[in-house]
Amino acid sequence: MENQSIDQLKKICSQVRRDCLRMVHAVQSGHPGAALGLTEYFVALFFKEMEHNNKFEMDAKGEDLFFLSNGHVSALWYSVLARTGYFSTDELGTFRKINSRLQGHPATHEGLPGIRIASGSLGQGLSVAIGAAQVKKLNQDNKLVYVMMGDGEQQEGQVWEAAMYAAHHKVDNLIAAIDYNGQQIDGPTAKVMDLKNLRAKYEAFGWEVIDIQKGNDMEAVLDGLSKAKDLTGKGKPVLILLYTEMGYGVDFMVGTHKWHGVAPNDEQLANALGQLEETLGDY
Amino acid sequence: MEKTLDLKFTYTEKKDTRSGFGDGLLEAGRKNPNVVGLCADLIGSLKMGAFEKEFPERFFQVGIAEANMIGLAAGMTIGGKIPFTGTFANFSTGRVYDQIRQSVAYSDKNVKICASHAGLTLGEDGATHQILEDVGMMKMLPHMTVIVPCDYNQTKAATLALVDHVGPAYLRFGRPSWPVFTPADQKFEIGKAVKMIEGKDVTIFANGHLVWEAVVAEAMLREEGISAEVINIHTIKPLDEEAILNSVQKTGCAVSAEEHQVNGGLGDSIAQVLARNYPAPLEYIGVNDSFGESGTPTQLLEKYGLNAENIVKAAKKAIARK
């Protein structure tokens, strides 16, 4: 998957956004806002940057690993997993329905390929990723571990326990990213619980921190990931502050927390899909 | 009093069950290279120092950050490790319930949560640390195995058995020196109750430190002409329903004895089995909806009604209800 051109990756993003909106619309529940905002990052990871095997094995020896801590972005992850061949895209139509492997929040319980741990209750994914990264070292496996977190999630205390641990134990085969969209359920993070200077906080904990200022620009995301990889293996964990816009790609959803956990109605879906080209075929 | 009794089990030494864990973990580490240890700033209390010394690369000091420890352990299973986490029982369960629920139990990760200083016998530290609800919390979680061994030897054997058991497990042990009365070479079968003493009038189901109290109670009852059966239910989940029913069908009544809240503990699990299959009088020995306090283990077991004398009273009451 490393040969995808930037143009192809952008086309995949359009399809993935369509998948997310159709999945959420079909059950009138789910979290479209952050899914649309993180599409470029997920597509860059799964279609280009990560070495991973869609013939899923839990232990993932010799593969890069990805963990999603802010599990409510599940629709996006499911779309990207299906579009990279972990399971059939037809299964996306079962999202959040009874007897589905595509649970509201990601789970291992139903055996969905690609998922290695449940998430949804926030603040836990960084710890899990650090544990997996340390085991990679024990196993002399030089691949990387990626973990995605929300910015509102930084309000959870466990995140800072994990941040302190990772620097202390020099977990330098880890690239964490924070979806820095400035929004959470009850409103802007600055209003709900101000995160202040996340860069300074992580640096003070002993991390390398880089910005991806344009988290919805594929070139910028790829460039940032390349820089992040270059920083691994140097004795410090690496954090990407990924500036995204919630709801990116749909004009009436962008930049507001209002679409955090609200599904579009029929008319809104049609409007949104009209703004997103069907590039790989809808499921 | 014990010396004047004709006990069916005797002991030559007292040891803490936590040392059984520490020694078991060291042996487990020697037997299986995938065993890793994590500890939240309580290496000495959990007796994990020998493992740390022999396997420094497989030991992870987490600091005072138990939530992170549970997440780390869950992540370490990915790649094939078998993590044993160590801290006090309070911080192993109540403090990190959601982390265990999502990252370990629901995700079905092969994490062994090893918890010391459980119950009243923690002693002088008092109620903040004397957790009496942990077994209930853990047994409610789907996928979770819950084990409360009775002495040093059994704790060591249980620790070793957990290496070969695949899936989340909670192992509860304690701080005080306690009689070592089960065999050093015992085979520990998870989910299999151990009949310690055969009897016919009443069954005493006990676990943890109270198995010894049950052994003492049996001798006291025998002096009064009452024949008590003593069964060690070291595994609360999965519960050995067959052993429970076989015994109560013979004796017709039972006492449960545990260093835990009556609500949600071993007694409740036994009551469910009896209610569904063979209703019979059951008396509970446990803490009755209260917190503990500072004191010596012996004082606390007496004050909260958890010692042999109380088991004897409960047994007589159960027999009278037949």
TrEMBL record, chain A:
Cited Pfam families: Transketolase_N (PF00456)
InterPro entries xrefs: THDP-binding, Transketolase_N
Taxonomy, superkingdom: Bacteria
Residue ranges of coiled coil: none
Named cofactor requirement(s): thiamine diphosphate
Membrane-spanning ranges: none
Keyword terms, alphabetized: Thiamine pyrophosphate
Similarity comment: family membership: Belongs to the transketolase family.
Protein name per the record: Transketolase
The species this protein was found in: Cecembia rubra
Lineage of origin: Bacteria, Pseudomonadati, Bacteroidota, Cytophagia, Cytophagales
UniProtKB/TrEMBL annotation, chain B:
Occurrences of domain Transketolase-like pyrimidine-binding (ranges): 15-180
Keyword annotations from UniProtKB, A to Z: Thiamine pyrophosphate
Cofactor(s) needed by this chain: thiamine diphosphate
Alphabetical list of InterPro entries matching this protein: PDH/Transketolase, THDP-binding, Transketo_C/PFOR_II, Transketolase-like_Pyr-bd, Transketolase_C
Pfam families in alphabetical order: Transket_pyr, Transketolase_C
Coiled coil: none
UniProt KW Isomerase keyword: no
Family listed: Belongs to the transketolase family.
Protein name stated in the entry: Transketolase
Organism: Cecembia rubra
